[in-house]
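Pair request: fold both.
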Amino acid sequence: MIKIDSPDTLLANGLKDTWYAICPSNFIADKPVSLRRLGMKLVFWRDEAGKLYALEDHCPHRGAPLSRGILLGDRIACGYHGVQVRADGVVTNVPGSPGCSLEGKRAARSFHVVERNGAVFLYNSATNVDQAPDFTLPEELVSDEYAAFLCYTEWRGDYRYVIDNVMDPMHGTYLHKQSHSMAEGSSVAEFGVRDTEHGFVFEKKGQRGVNFDWTEWANTGLHWLRLEIPYPSTGGPGGSFAIVGTYTPISENLAAVFHWRCRKVSGWQRHAWQFLYRNRLEARHWAVLEQDREVLEVMEPDANQRENLYQHDIGLVRLRRHLRNLATEQFEQLKGKTA
């Protein structure tokens, strides 16, 4: 586990007491799975009923990876010495030394996990907690009026560059100008910021429903971004094409990238849209994402330290400042608890 020695380290590895998307649900089947996320190596597994659990992938006895152990329902028996660790972090049995002081001790880091919309989410608590607060997903992922597809990938580089990219509607006019859904609209724009209940919208002034015209950032227990791109008639039935994204640090130079591609359709139109998406549109959307990836992966790690920003960048400046303030506040709280 990475030592949190500054707000920068905290933010680079993911804010505490916040939900993060970890992986698609199908990554975790009938065997323990070890994944590096949020500055930690974590082990995920399911019991016979399919319920999901998560611990730090570190046996409290000698530090062996629990992911190499044996599943016992809501427990894992470490493969190194057989020490059994329950999903809440309590050591329930030390077979080599029954009754030793390690038994009954909450010695492992445990994490609350849930599955929604085809993805696994983890509450990145600063310490073990018995209950985790809930989080809220945007309308596109909870309403029956929408159909959505999860698109998951991993990009080399800091996850914050992915956030910056989505908080930058103007790049769509240039980088994605050949896309069937982003070929219209002015190449010149002025932007404004509008507050919402849980965050803010960064939007072009005087242009709406033409191109990639706005981005919303929100914190509802989970940090997410949302945007809409109008579709031509060739895009099939339904309203604008909506994208909901959330991004998670895997390591210093690797990011987990989650995009749900959504459309407001129901009845026969939903089936038509789903068929059209899978057979014609999905490849085009991945091509657009590849354009983003190819730019972000070759940016220098310190590129954001040598910028000359202008009016189009006020949204990402505001979000960077807000996240930095959250990290500073959390770091002071953590430092106070350990003082």
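--- second member of the pair ---
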Amino acid sequence: MRTNIRTIIGIAFASVLVLTVSCKGKTEEAKETSTEATMEHEGHDMGNMETADKQGKEYTSKYVCPMHCEGSGSDEEGKCPVCGMTYVLNEDFQMEGHDQH
């Protein structure tokens, strides 16, 4: 009986060790993928964002891409079709016929 308990404890310990090591690798891989996705903004003129013409739907929609990709923006939550970033609520959004005070 004592041998069986030791065997069970040994198997449980080995299982926890294997799961810990394998999950750690996946977490680091997910972090790298996430970082790469947020860092890649090819085709965006980051230096000219302040002076850009802010008349397109990428600036005037209720939900906009944080990168203001051309042609992005929606009245519903979602993801940018250009860069894949999640839309954010546009704080400057004005519903038609309503003035901001």
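Observation on the second member. The helical segments are 2-39, 57-60.
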